[in-house]
């Protein structure tokens, strides 16, 4: 296919998605403060996958116990179900890990029951990505407070992983999107551990996704990031509708697994 035809095909697919004739639909339930998940998903998903989003006030001052959170999740999932989403993601790394594996299963059940769609959480996607990348021992790096890293560590260790070193930048949540890719490179390089199988860059509202391929080339270790892992896991679930896809090289080795 020449460049003109390729451009025309991409335009046709984009028009198809924007006018309601997408081959697949992905729903995202994201924190109200999240500004980067939507542009990341739209940049890296095929153009004929429509992305529909519902926001919840569920982080920072809006953090709430599991019971009230499940009620909000069910309402959000039901709304995305009205859009006939094929897969609905509870897309917040910290919140999907905070209540442990059992709490995460309750969140997934709430999504399924309210929407009738396949349910996915960021935590589930990360775990699948870590296992696919053979990362048993990892360095965990996030913009969070240490308490958030601690409950992510507990969640991962409950599932058999080992967090051998972690870094929490302690940035205010409003500043997460403003941490530049160069800062994530600097922090990761400074905190690499030889015994780690790979790196987990946690958080859906960061620029971490921009450095995955560069880090893997430099460190010769796999890198998993929250948005990258969720895009990968969602595409696996949408594969029956989409068929074979060319993996985006910018998202690293995970996309070839």
Q: What is the alpha-carbon Rg in Å? A: 18 Å
The computed structural class is alpha/beta
Q: What number of domains?
A: 2
CATH topology of the largest domain: Rossmann fold
Strand order of the largest sheet: 2-1-3-4
Tally of extended strands? 8
Provide a count of the helices: 10
Q: What is the terminal separation in angstroms?
A: 27 Å
The CATH architecture of the largest domain would be 3-Layer(aba) Sandwich
What is the name of the CATH class of the largest domain? Alpha Beta
Largest sheet: 4 strands, parallel
**Principal-axis shape:** globular
Write a concise keyword list for the protein shown above:
257 residues, Rossmann fold, alpha/beta
Structure description:
The protein has 257 residues and is an alpha/beta fold. It has two domains: 3-124 and 228-256, Rossmann fold; 125-225, 3-Layer(aba) Sandwich (Rossmann fold), CATH 3.40.50.1860. It contains ten helices and eight strands. The strands form two sheets. It has a four-stranded parallel beta sheet, sandwiched between helices. It has a four-stranded parallel beta sheet with strand order 6-5-7-8, sandwiched between helices. Helix 2 (37-44) links the parallel strand 1 and strand 2. Helix 6 packs across helix 10 (226-242). The two termini are 27 Å apart.
């Amino acid at each position: 296919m020449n460049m003109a035809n390729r451009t025309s095909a991409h335009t046709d697919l984009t028009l198809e998605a924007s006018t309601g004739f997408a081959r697949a639909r992905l729903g995202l339930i994201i924190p109200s403060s999240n500004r980067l998940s939507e542009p990341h998903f739209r940049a890296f998903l095929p153009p004929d996958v429509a992305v529909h989003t519902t926001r919840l006030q569920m982080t920072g001052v809006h953090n709430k116990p599991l019971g009230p959170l499940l009620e909000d999740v069910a309402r959000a999932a039901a709304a995305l179900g009205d859009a006939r989403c094929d897969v609905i993601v509870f897309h917040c790394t910290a919140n999907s890990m905070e209540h442990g594996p059992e709490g995460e299963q309750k969140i997934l059940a709430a999504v399924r029951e309210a929407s009738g769609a396949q349910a996915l959480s960021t935590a589930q996607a990360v775990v699948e990505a870590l296992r696919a990348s053979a990362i048993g021992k990892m360095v965990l790096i996030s913009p969070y407070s240490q308490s958030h890293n601690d409950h992510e560590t507990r969640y991962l260790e409950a599932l058999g992983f080992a967090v051998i070193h972690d870094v929490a930048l302690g940035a205010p949540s409003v500043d997460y999107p403003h941490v530049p890719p160069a800062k994530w490179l600097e922090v990761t390089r400074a905190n690499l551990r030889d015994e780690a199988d790979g790196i987990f860059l946690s958080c859906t509202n960061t620029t971490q996704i921009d450095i995955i391929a560069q880090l893997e080339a430099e460190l010769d270790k796999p890198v998993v990031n929250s948005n990258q892992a969720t895009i990968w896991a969602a595409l696996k679930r949408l594969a029956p509708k989409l068929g074979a896809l060319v993996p985006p090289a910018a998202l690293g080795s995970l996309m070839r697994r």
